[in-house]
């Protein structure tokens, strides 16, 4: 199936299929409780590190050069394994790629795919891939927590439960070999994935924690519509050193919430107080690095007191 990369903003459902409600309803009926349907117009643009951005640009260019590749016996790669810590934007990135290609994405929680009865998981996998192959709109599949499905077989023994897990991995391999559509999988634990499954992915993209420039861009994005001084944006971004994009977004939303509701609740709305309250009510996920706001809170709050504040509300 030929895909055309859409260079502008993610298209609306009207542009894609003429009747967005009908399209979404048909997809949801087709996939039932096996996956969550997300449409191109719902996508957000991810903020990526330079290496990941370059890999993404090359892949999208490749998708747009399908005929050129066919002339030398190749076709665009269609499977990507996305790895990285929780909250680093793996789902956002996959959804963005689908939006650029103008196709809906079905988000499959791998744990939900696993049935409690013998053979049920294999049947769920077969139904999911069968629905994707015959879908009139063309869909991409996104398997979250993929390591729950694609367990390494060399770590299993011959007991009943492990035999079933081995059968799941074999069923997954068979479905991969029959499927030529766009497919993503995301994992936080790459070492647990079976090597044979790993080799089925033509791209393996690691999405790490954001660097200085990426944190600045994330803070600027999620503090809108407030017009925040660049020095203050940089200071907040520095406070979130070693934080995931998801945690940075939570922090920015907490700042905006405090600016709007703080005066009504008679809470202080200076930046150190807002950051201090957020640090007391949130934290990084288990196994993640401790961000600077938590590890060096006194220093962060002292520095925040010297930043330009409060911000002005920008035009909406």
How would you describe this structure to a colleague?
The protein is an alpha/beta fold. 50% of the residues lie in helices and 10% in strands. The strands form 2 sheets. It has a 6-stranded mixed beta sheet with strand order 1-3-4-5-2-6. Strands 7-8 form a two-stranded antiparallel ribbon. Strand 4, helix 8 and strand 5 (183-187) form a beta-alpha-beta unit. Helix 7 (120-134) packs parallel to helix 8 and helix 13 packs antiparallel against helix 15. The longest helix has 21 residues, at 245-265. The chain is elongated, with a radius of gyration of 22 Å. The relative contact order is 0.12.
Task: Annotate the secondary structure layout.
Layout: H1 13-17, H2 20-31, E1 36-38, H3 50-63, H4 66-70, E2 79-83, H5 90-101, E3 105-109, H6 110-113, H7 120-134, E4 140-144, H8 160-178, E5 183-187, H9 195-199, E6 203-206, H10 212-223, E7 226-227, H11 230-239, H12 245-265, H13 271-281, H14 292-295, H15 297-304, E8 312-313
Oligomer: single chain
> What is the mean predicted local confidence, pLDDT?
88
| Percent of residues in β-strands | 5-15%
Order of helices and strands: HHEHHEHEHHEHEHEHEHHHHHE
Query: End-to-end span in angstroms?
Result: 41 Å
Write out the strand line-up for the largest beta sheet, numbering strands in chain order.
Answer: 1-3-4-5-2-6
Report on the biggest sheet.
6 strands, mixed
Compute the number of helices: 15
**Radius of gyration, taken over Cα atoms and rounded to an integer in Å:** 22 Å
Helix content: 40-55%
- Tertiary shape: elongated
Low-pLDDT stretches are 1-18
The number of distinct β-strands equals 8
Structural class, from secondary structure content? alpha/beta
């Amino acid at each position: 199936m030929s895909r055309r990369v859409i260079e502008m903003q993610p298209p609306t459902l009207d542009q894609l299929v003429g009747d967005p409600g009908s399209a979404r309803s048909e997809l949801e009926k087709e996939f039932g409780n096996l996956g969550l349907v997300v449409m191109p117009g719902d996508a957000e643009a991810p903020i990526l590190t330079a290496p990941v951005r370059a890999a993404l640009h090359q892949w999208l260019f490749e998708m747009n050069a399908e005929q050129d590749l066919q002339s030398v016996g190749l076709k665009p790669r269609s499977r990507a394994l996305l790895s990285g810590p929780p909250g680093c934007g793996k789902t956002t990135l996959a959804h963005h790629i689908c939006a650029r290609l103008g196709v809906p994405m079905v988000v499959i929680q791998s744990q939900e795919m696993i049935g409690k009865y013998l053979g049920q998981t294999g049947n769920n996998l077969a139904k999911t891939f069968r629905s994707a192959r015959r879908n009139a709109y063309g869909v991409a599949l996104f398997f979250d927590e993929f390591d729950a499905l694609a367990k390494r077989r060399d770590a299993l023994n011959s007991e009943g439960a492990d035999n079933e897990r081995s059968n799941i991995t074999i069923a997954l391999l068979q479905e991969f070999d029959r499927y030529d559509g766009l497919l993503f999988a995301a994992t936080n634990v790459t070492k647990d994935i079976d090597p044979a499954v790993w080799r089925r992915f033509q791209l393996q993209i690691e999405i790490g924690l954001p660097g200085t420039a990426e944190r600045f861009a994330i803070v600027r994005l999620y503090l809108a519509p407030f017009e925040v001084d660049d020095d203050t944006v940089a200071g907040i971004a520095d406070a979130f050193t070693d934080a995931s994009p998801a945690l940075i977004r939570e922090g920015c939303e907490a700042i905006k919430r405090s600016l709007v509701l703080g005066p009504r609740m008679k809470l202080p709305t200076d930046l150190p107080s807002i950051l201090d309250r957020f640090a007391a009510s949130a934290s990084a996920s288990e196994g993640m690095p401790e961000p600077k706001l938590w590890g060096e809170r006194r220093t962060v709050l002292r520095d925040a007191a010297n930043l330009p504040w409060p911000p002005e509300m920008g035009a909406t």
